[in-house]
Amino acid sequence: MRRIVVTEFVTLDGVMQDPGGAEDFSRGGWASQFDRGADGDQYKVDELMAADALLLGRRTFQGFAAAWPGQTGDFADKINTVRKIVVSSTLEDPAWSPTTVIRGDVARELGAMKDGPGGDILVAGSGQLVRTLLADGLVDELRLMVFPIVLGTGNRLFSDGTPETSLRLVEARPVGPAGVMVLTYTTSSSPPNMRHDVLTVTRRRA
After folding, report:
1. ∠ CA(78), CA(87), CA(194), 5° rounding?
2. Is 199 a domain residue?
């Protein structure tokens, strides 16, 4: 059985909007203010390399599709070649290949994917989609890279209307020298016998 794993950059007050500064947000780029260190960078590489597919909402997909094609390196090569699954009722021609668009019953189609063969399905960004997945009990693991900043405004991962979800903390550790934390949770919908893989990286010593 496959897992759906959600991975997000968030502030201390839960804002997920524009961590890289590529969107039209007055406080965008907040994640780049903090050094997450070589261990934090490696964590993100390892997590992508372990994924069998990316599951994205339309806006996040279009942002990724504008940024990654044409870039090189192990991370870029993986994100450009891994299967992308986009949930959208309006996206007609996803030029960034290989991509599958889901337009119908999201819970049914993703439930069938989870029951089929393959590895982890990784969700990045895509706040509205994440809330839908939580409501449908489809999220197995939640990974938050929490940055020590409070913005006070912006789109939050858990906005009003987010369904109540019980979480179990399985890992909490700092990455880099600036107080960035990685928090990993499993959800109540994750089968108790499902193997949990905690990503580990080699911490470099000065």
Report:
1. 65
2. no
Name the domain count of the chain.
Answer: 1
DSSP state of 86: E
How far is residue 113 CA from its own chain's centroid? 18
Contacts of 120 (CB under 8 A, 6+ apart): 2, 3, 4, 5, 50, 51, 52, 53
- Which domain does 177 fall in, by range? 4-18+29-187
Tell me which residue of 65, 5, 21, 6 sits closest to 154, measured CA to CA. Answer: 21
Q: Is residue 196 part of a domain?
A: no
User: CA 100, CA 83: separation in Å to the nearest integer?
Assistant: 8
DSSP element (H, E) containing 4: strand 4-11
DSSP annotation string for 128-167 = HHHHHHHHTT---EEEEEEES---S-S-BSS-TTPPP--E
Q: What's the length of the chain?
A: 206
pLDDT tens track for 112-148:
999 999 999 999 999 999 999 999 999 999 999 999 9
Residue 108 belongs to some domain of the structure: yes
Pairwise CA distance, residues 190 & 7, whole Å: 16
**Owner of token pair 């934390």:** 181
Distance CA 144, CA 183 (A): 5
Q: Which residue is it, tokens 């019980």? A: 166
Q: Which of 163, 199, 164, 165 is nearest to 184 (CA)?
A: 199
pLDDT in tens, 11-54: 999 999 999 998 889 999 999 999 999 999 999 999 999 999 99
